[in-house]
TrEMBL record:
Keywords: Allosteric enzyme, ATP-binding, Cytoplasm, Glycolysis, Kinase, Magnesium, Metal-binding, Nucleotide-binding, Transferase. It is found in: Cytoplasm. It comes from Marnyiella aurantia. Homotetramer. It is an enzyme of class 2 (transferase). This is ATP-dependent 6-phosphofructokinase.
């Protein structure tokens, strides 16, 4: 390979810039040309592609978001869109792609690779941590710390006012952020899609908390929780306990922003480096991940299809320590 192009796609995640920097600088180190594609697969379709050198990624390792911008491309879902993208690869002489993103990004990358054969490697960048083949994804650690800081603040005011707070954290289909930020902030209960929850169990927790003299409580709820969203949960709780003073906080997109943590910067640097060296070794249609502190490559198909499981010990610990 001679020319590598890098893009970020799907929901942005803190540390994506550190990954872009690593891809560009590693390419440069090994004498490969590197191109940046702007706005995800849309930029590939539209030819929004610029040459990048070591200086185009100066001072970005500490920046949140992605300097290449991101998009969830509808056009890339169509055969016509992908054909245009391939034509752009051909006219720009791009022979390998590094796609930084989550499962949507990888699905697109895999289809494109299978249709047109452009050598492709994925780098897991999503705050959700829902990608198989890596212990953690880029952005997850930062998002956890952002959620933890926010919930700590909510706890202050919950305590002052003897209130119950339902706090929604991100995680469309996964409870990693909820479980870990919930443990770190001493949440009385944590509701995640991977576990079957019931209102009765939640009420039981409230009753136990009251018996043990707790005057305030924070319940951390993953966005993808099946029992209901924070509004439904709050309404049902109010019906059962009319005297409870209940409030809701939806942390939302603040969890996606901010300067990446040290762990995310290091992870992104290692995976960006791993993606380029992986391509040079001829790896294709795989994702670079970090497992037990080692660089590993997982077929993209597996990374999308399989799921990292929630640690059941953590769930148990959260229950024991909450009350
Ligand atoms: O996949 C990352 C994520 O932040 C999810 O946790 C969340 O459900 C989703 O993206 C939000 O997407 P958008 O920014 O398009 O609203």
């Amino acid at each position: 390979i001679k020319k590598i192009a890098v893009l970020t796609s799907g929901g942005d995640a803190p540390g994506m810039n550190a990954a872009i920097r690593a891809v560009v600088r590693t390419s440069n180190y090994f004498g490969l040309e590197c191109y940046g594609i702007r706005e995800g697969f849309n930029g590939l379709i539209d030819g929004n592609i610029t040459k990048m050198g070591p200086r185009s990624v100066s001072n970005i390792i500490n920046l949140g978001g992605t300097i290449l911008r991101s998009a969830r491309s509808e056009d890339f879902r169509t055969e016509e869109g992908r054909k245009k993208a391939f034509e752009q690869c051909q006219s720009n002489g791009i022979d390998a792609l590094v796609c930084i993103g989550g499962d949507g990004t990888f699905t697109g990358a895999k289809i494109f690779n299978e249709e047109f054969g452009i050598q492709t490697i994925g780098v897991p960048g999503t705050i959700d941590n829902d990608i198989f083949g890596t212990d953690t994804t880029i952005g997850y650690d930062t998002a956890l710390n952002t959620a933890m800081d926010a919930i700590d603040k909510i706890r202050d005011t919950a305590t002052s006012h003897n209130r119950i707070f339902f706090v929604e954290v991100m995680g469309r289909d996964a409870g990693f952020i909820a479980l870990n930020s919930g443990i770190a902030t001493g949440a009385v209960d944590i509701l995640i899609p991977e576990q079957k929850d019931s209102m009765e169990e939640l009420f039981d927790t409230f009753d136990k908390a009251a018996k043990r003299g707790k005057n305030s409580s924070v319940v951390v709820v993953a966005e993808g929780e099946k029992l209901g969203n924070v509004y439904d949960l709050s309404e049902q709780t109010k019906k059962k306990y009319p005297n409870y003073d209940i409030r809701i906080a939806v942390l939302g997109h603040i969890q996606r922003g901010g300067s990446p943590s040290c762990a995310d910067r290091v992870l992104a640097s290692r995976l960006g480096y791993g993606a380029v060296t992986g391509l040079m070794e001829g790896r294709n249609n795989v994702m670079a991940g970090m497992r037990s502190n080692k660089l590993v490559f997982t077929p993209i198909e597996e990374a999308i299809k399989k799921h990292n499981t929630i640690n059941k010990d953590l769930l148990k610990i959260s229950e024991i320590l909450a009350l």
